[in-house]
Structures are given as structure tokens and as C-alpha cells.
Amino acid sequence: MTKEGNFIIFAIEQYKKAMNMQGKDVIELFKKYNIFELIRKSYVTYHIEREQNMIDDINDYIKN
2 falls in which pLDDT band (50, 70, 90)? Predict the structure, then answer.
């Protein structure tokens, strides 16, 4: 698996924990709002920032 692929799994787990959701629900949400592409495009940034920044970005992206 690629580094980005591993990071997407990490992002799912972090979002799941932060939002108190089930993994399958996070995956459905990420598919609905194309969050996987957001994570791929922002991999370098998210990889060096704290996890909460990524979670906040995802929530902002979904709201807008």
C-alpha cells in the first residue's frame, strides 16, 4: 500500500474516533463528499500537522 493509502486509513480512524462514528459510516460520508480526494491532495500538509487540523478541515469541507 502507498503512503497516501496508509494515511487515508489513519484519517478514517482519527475521524471515526473524533466524531464517535462507525468506520462504515465514515467511509460512506467520505465517499459522499469526496473526502478521499481532499486527503490525497492535502497529504503532505496533513501528514505534518496535528490530526485535529485535518478533522476540522474535513468538517468545514462537508459544511460548505
Answer: confident
Do residues 55 and 18 make contact, with C-beta atoms less than 8 angstroms apart? Answer: yes
User: pLDDT tens digits, residue range 28-63?
Assistant: 999 999 999 999 999 999 889 999 999 999 999 999
Domain boundaries, the chain: 3-63
User: What DSSP letter does each residue of 1-64 carry, written as one string?
Assistant: --HHHHHHHHHHHHHHHHHT--HHHHHHHHHHTTHHHHHHHTHHHHHHS-HHHHHHHHHHHHH-
